[in-house]
Specification:
About 35% of the residues lie in helices and about 15% in strands. It is α+β, with helices and mostly antiparallel strands. The chain has a three-stranded antiparallel β-sheet.
């Protein structure tokens, strides 16, 4: 049985915390206070994957993937 490697999806965009905060239009302090997603280090800088940042924002906004059949509870 031959196993094929996963297709190359291109480089991952790693945003610095400042860049991620600017993308969300908040201060860095606010971003660090509220962001609880995965981070990684490149040298001395802490970075956030743009893919994970987008997924985190969708989750915070209450958006669900198209294949999610479970309704989300919305607190009012």
């Amino acid at each position: 049985m031959s196993t094929q490697p996963a297709p190359y999806a291109g480089p991952a965009e790693g945003l610095t915390l400042d860049e991620a905060a600017v993308r969300l239009r908040v201060t860095r302090d606010t971003f660090e206070k509220h962001y609880n997603g995965p981070t990684f280090k490149v040298g001395r800088e802490t970075r956030v994957s743009a893919k994970h940042l987008d997924a985190w924002m969708d989750e915070r906004a209450g958006l669900t993937p198209a294949n999610d059949t479970q309704p989300r509870r919305v607190q009012v």
